[in-house]
Design goal:
Layout: H1 14-23, H2 30-42, E1 46-50, H3 56-67, E2 71-75, H4 82-85, E3 87-89, H5 91-103, H6 113-120, E4 126-128, H7 130-136, E5 141-145, H8 152-164, E6 166-169, E7 173-176, E8 182-187, H9 195-200, E9 202-206, H10 211-221, H11 227-240, H12 251-263, H13 271-277, H14 285-292, H15 295-299
Parallel strand pairs: 1-8, 1-9, 2-5, 5-8
Antiparallel strand pairs: 3-4, 6-7
């Protein structure tokens, strides 16, 4: 296992990394900046766990932007397998190539089977999936999103790849990263991820931001939103997160709500403007119905 620091220029400490993330609009506290910095220096994946909407995916996006590196995303889902994460062969193009060979053979009409196989399994027919692309791209940030939706077999495969930073393609041989990608895994904790994978990573639990930090995020990302409106939206969202909803709003919904209110000309959050724009912050009918009945309480200081 290679635990040496990655090559190339980068932040010299957590404070510098936090400043670089802030420049992209992502506000990182000391704990988050330190965990991310250590993951980068130790060549360890960063395992981010927390409720939906706490900024796990946004961290990887901001990290890639701050490092001027491509973000390569692998979205996990039920039934995902190694082929979907690593590579596949472009069968239609291979078939077309084979037909071309057959049409251009010599007078005897014979094809050398070994030569045909070698030409079919050539780089030009290789379809690189996210993990293979990340191993071959330096620098890069590999986001493995919602790993909790994958199964045990995929976790075992992922553990091997993240440990060795290499894959073997039978037809081409081993492909090893010259510099390992920065890896961010996210989990909404719909199930427990195995300890073996977690031990390979540095762990970070992300909470919803405090009201003060949420207002700061609004000012940073949406400076055109009036201060009074930003504060009232942040207070309302904090209350919604404790209202026993099917899907409590995350930071992305806070930003959407503030933007929607600003677009309709609202200067502050009142029952009328809140009712007109609830679709920006609530995504289930049952939640919207429940909140509609409690708007006065929700908006009370």
């Amino acid at each position: 296992m290679n635990d040496s620091a990655p090559a190339g220029a980068g932040p010299t400490g957590p404070a510098e990394l936090a400043a670089a993330l802030r420049a992209t609009g992502y506000l990182a506290d000391d704990g988050l900046a330190t965990a991310t910095y250590l993951a980068m220096q130790m060549n360890r994946p960063l395992f981010c766990e927390g409720e939906p909407g706490t900024g796990k995916t946004a961290l990887a996006q901001a990290l890639a932007q701050s490092l001027d590196a491509p973000l390569i995303r692998l979205q996990c889902h039920d039934g995902i397998d190694a082929a979907q994460a690593l590579y596949d062969w472009d069968f239609p193009r291979q078939l077309l190539h084979l037909r071309t060979l057959e049409a251009t053979t010599g007078a005897d009409g014979r094809l050398d089977p070994d030569a045909v196989e070698h030409s079919l399994y050539d780089e030009r027919f290789l379809l690189a999936r996210p993990i293979l692309r990340a191993l071959r791209t330096t620098p890069s940030v590999l986001l493995i999103d919602e790993i909790d939706r994958a199964d045990d077999e995929f976790e075992a495969f992922l553990l091997e790849v993240l440990t060795e930073h290499a894959v073997t393609i039978p037809e081409l041989g081993e492909i090893r990263a010259s510099t390992p990608p920065i890896v961010v895994l996210t989990s909404n904790r719909t199930r427990e991820v195995h300890d073996a994978l977690k031990r390979r990573c540095l762990y970070l639990w992300l909470e919803h931001p405090s009201i003060e930090r949420e207002i700061e995020i609004l000012h940073s990302r949406l400076p055109e939103v009036p201060e009074r409106l930003a504060a009232s939206v942040a207070r309302a969202v904090q209350k919604l997160r404790h209202a026993d909803l099917i899907k409590p709003p995350g930071v992305a919904e806070t930003l959407d709500w503030a933007r929607a209110l600003q677009l309709i000309g609202a200067r502050h959050l009142d029952p009328e403007s809140a009712a007109r724009t609830l679709g920006a912050v609530l995504k289930y009918r049952e939640d919207a119905d429940r909140v509609h009945k409690q708007l006065d309480t929700l908006l009370a200081s």
